[in-house]
Amino acid sequence: MLLLYRLLGIAASIGSGMSRVRLNFVSLSLFPVIGLFFPIFTLFEAIGDYREGKTPNPVSLGQVAKEGYSGHKYVSVMGQYDPEVAFESSVKHRFSTTPGKNYIALTDPESHGAVMVAMNPGVMAGVLPGRVTLSGILEPFESKMIMQLPPLSEGEPISHLYFLNLGAAPHDPADTALMGVTFGIPLAFYAVAFFRLYIIFRKTPAAAPVPPPASVVDFDTLPLVRATGRFWPHTGDSGRFLNVPAVLGRLGGGEICLYSNIDASSSQRIYGIQVSKEELAGYWVIPINPDSLSEIEMGELFPGWSPRRAIRIRFNYGPTSYLETVILTFDSPEDRIEVVRALLSPAEEPFILN
């Protein structure tokens, strides 16, 4: 279980840094989450390869040519070539066009069907007359290629949905599944950290009872902490930060406040080139009304591979009574006890946010 939290902590650390960069107006932290579709697609492909089997499934050309064919894709078919029904495809590049595969019709008067067979140009020269058995994968036609399909000389219906990719076979489902799992596991860890707002906290039993509140708190002597949660700048919108250095102080209204000097500047990149940067360096704060603390939990925060002793506090924020969560981490158990006592000390006046 500890290893699981450590790996989530690494994912949280990476994601927190990526969230400050935008690529083509999209936060860089979103790309690994979107990338989860790749292993999911790969696993579905592995299931499909497994269902197709290791040997081609015999079908008739009449079945393939029927509208709405939805049978096996790895097939073997019997028929005879019609060299008069053939065409060559081309591959368009940025500045040139190169020849693609050749297509020739395979017809079967017995089952009243036909399919175009795709083969390399060198194979086309070896096409023999007479009835043959071919195997390959039925692949969907592109719409522009359907327009090139010529009429058959014998008038048999030809499949406009699929062509036979001669000699192709499904991938080994074990290899496909392994590739999906290899990419999927780290992306899944990242997604969990992403949806947990990069906060990987593990509650642990307290080694000692929660200390009593301090009657008098000297905030100048309180230890330096690291804070995780939603901070507010002097002006502008709030932002979430992970394990940033902070100090505890007392505001004029009596409430406790976390101060942190944070450089939250974010850059905007288009095709990898930085085009703008939003400067957001300065002091950010978290005001905490001690009277609104709902609970203090002892635990560990994983801002990376190594955990840090921590407390998780929940309190009502401002006049809207919105429940906020902040996690503080410490260098020593004594620092944690001292800060907990300060947090439990009563506010001098009710907390009012202007």
Protein topology:
Elements: H1 2-18, E1 21-23, E2 26-27, H2 30-34, H3 37-52, E3 57-58, H4 61-65, E4 74-92, E5 97-108, E6 113-119, H5 121-124, E7 131-140, H6 143-146, E8 162-166, H7 173-195, E9 201-203, E10 225-233, E11 239-250, E12 256-263, E13 266-270, E14 273-278, E15 281-288, E16 295-301, E17 308-317, E18 322-329, H8 333-343
Parallel strand pairs: 1-13, 3-4, 6-8
Antiparallel strand pairs: 1-2, 4-5, 4-7, 5-6, 7-8, 9-16, 10-11, 10-15, 10-18, 11-12, 12-15, 13-14, 16-17, 17-18
Describe the structure.
Mean pLDDT is 79; it is low at 349-354. Helices cover 24% and strands 38% of the residues. The longest helix is centred in the middle third of the chain and has 23 residues, at 173-195. The protein folds into 3 domains: 2-50 and 173-195; 55-166, OB fold (Dihydrolipoamide Acetyltransferase, E2P), CATH 2.40.50.140; 201-343, PH-domain like (Roll). 28% of the residues are buried. The radius of gyration is 33 Å and the shape is elongated. Helix 3 packs antiparallel against helix 7 (173-195). With 354 residues, the chain is an alpha+beta fold. The chain has helices at residues 2-18, 30-34, 37-52, 61-65, 121-124, 143-146, 173-195, 333-343; strands spanning 21-23, 26-27, 57-58, 74-92, 97-108, 113-119, 131-140, 162-166, 201-203, 225-233, 239-250, 256-263, 266-270, 273-278, 281-288, 295-301, 308-317, 322-329. Strands 9, 10, 11, 12, 15, 16, 17 and 18 form an 8-stranded antiparallel sheet that branches. The protein starts with a helix and ends in an 11-residue tail after the last helix.
